[in-house]
Amino acid sequence: MSGSGTRSYPDPWDGNLDFARAVIDVVPWVMLAFSAVLTVVLYEDHAETGSPLVPLLLCGLAAAWTLGMYTLRPAWRERPRRMAVFVVVLLAIMTVMVFGYSWLGFYTFTGYYYVYRLVGSWRWRIVGIGVVACLAGISQGLGLYGPFDPARALLLAGAILVNVILGCAFTWFNWVSHRQGLLRSQLFDELAETNSRLEATLAENTGLHRQLLAQAREAGVLDERQRMAREIHDTLAQGLTGIITQLQAAEQASQDPPERRRHFDAAVTLARESLTEARRSVHALRPEALEQARLGEALTGVAGRWSERSGVPTQVTITGTVRPLPPEAESALLRTAQEALANVAKHAAATRVGVTLSYMDDEVVLDVRDDGRGFQPERAPGAPEPSAGFGLVAMRQRIEGAHGTLHVESEPGQGTAISARVPAGPPAPDETPAGLARAGA
Predict the structure, then answer these.
(1) Domain final position from 254, 282, 310
(2) Residue range 187-211: average pLDDT?
(3) pLDDT class for 417, splitting at 50, 70, 90?
(4) What is the domain range of residue 432?
(5) 268 and 395 co-located in one domain
(6) Around Cβ 90, how many Cβ atoms within 10 Å?
(7) For residues 117 and 18, is the Cβ–Cβ distance under 8 A?
(8) Hey, which residues does 319 pair with through a beta bridge?
(9) Is 167 a domain residue?
(10) Long-range residue pairs from 106-109, CB within 8 A, at least 24 positions apart, any chain
(11) How far apart are CA 111 and CA 314, in angstroms?
């Protein structure tokens, strides 16, 4: 019964097939048996009406047709054409039953089940429901006693109209509801598939991004190594070569003290320049202590070794939740601690030192305190002690280079407290080759 171009939808009873099949398999037989018994009773009460043979034969015909086409042929129930033939012939038998014997209309309403269950096309399902509704209305109208006058005809038409409207309306709304549910299900499936594809695409993009970053980092590291090699060749190697040359010349001028002194002075000058270049290059690299340990462990190791050399007791305290930091921040904090401890050894004459590393929500704070002689902080940034190397200015530049701040508190005779603060995360990714090289160093 599925006409061409008609879209079929799954049966809404598919979620409860056991119940639906039980209803279809049992109720029609019960109603057919009831109709047959009612026929016998009616003819016994009205013996003058004749023999009940014909209505009983109609009941038997319906039973035989249902038994042969449906009950004993479960495999045929999935064949639309055979079920279409079964439903059409059964409706024809019901039509003869209703027009000939109105009380047999008790059996006709079972046609709703067969049409609704076996007709796949919703268009034809509504047509079949309309036919069954007409038969139900006719059986109700013809079952009234009395002459067939206009009033009875009006009641018949009303019964047919009410049954058709109710049956078709119920089927129509059921079809609309089921179609909306099917469309929602399809929409959810499409949305789930889209989400799966989006997740796969995001995962693929993440992998590609990581691969590109790794390649860029490797290229940056290679570029940085080549740059350092060129710089060492152009500065340190040439300086060492010049020192050797000057020393050899001084040895050859052993009989000429002024010339010998000149060569020695030149060698010393070259050595100092080379030392300056070495310091500049070394401070551009990641501290060795951070290569094998985290910041807290590296800080503890640096402070311990410093304490052994200087003889000043040092206590290291780590607070908060320890977590990885950007390489620039870790390097800056460790270098600051080293420089602060070096300044304590050179200038403070302290008897004890405290180093505290505090992990906060959005920043990490390094505090280095001593009980030494102290100084005037306002003089340090503009005029650091020459013997202090980079000193406070270098520490401040290093911390500010990691997007942090450095604060110094000191008074003569009251000791010194240095506090360095750096963000817990990078403010912005630097994906240039040099920046990636520094991040991977």
Answers:
(1) 282
(2) 86
(3) very high
(4) 288-440
(5) no
(6) 24
(7) no
(8) 358
(9) yes
(10) 106/31, 106/34, 106/35, 106/38, 106/139, 107/28, 107/31, 107/32, 107/34, 107/35, 107/59, 107/62, 108/132, 108/135, 108/136, 108/139, 109/31, 109/136
(11) 97
pTM for this model (two decimals): 0.36
Shared domain for 30 and 173, answered yes or no, is yes
Q: How are beta strands 353-359 and 363-370 bridged, if at all?
A: antiparallel
Answer yes or no: do 261 and 382 share one domain.
Answer: no
β-strand pairing of 416-423 with 363-370: antiparallel
Q: Total structural domains in the chain?
A: 3
pLDDT score at 394: 78
User: Which segment of 34-48, 67-81, 100-114, 135-149 scores lowest on mean pLDDT?
Assistant: 135-149
Domain termination site, one of 266, 282, 298: 282
pLDDT-derived band at 387 (thresholds 50, 70, 90) equals very low
Q: Mark whether 301 and 277 lie in a shared domain.
A: no
Same structural domain, 126 and 241: no
Residue 173 corresponds to which tokens in the numbers above? 């709304």
Question: Interior CA angle at 331 toward 434 and 339, to 5°?
Answer: 125
Same domain, 161 and 274: no
Does residue 126 sit within a domain? yes
Q: Tell whether 52 is covered by a domain.
A: yes
Mean pLDDT of the chain: 76
Question: Alpha-carbon distance 121 to 390, whole Å?
Answer: 89
Q: Are 330 and 226 found together in one domain?
A: no
Q: Are 326 and 426 in contact (CB under 8 A)?
A: yes
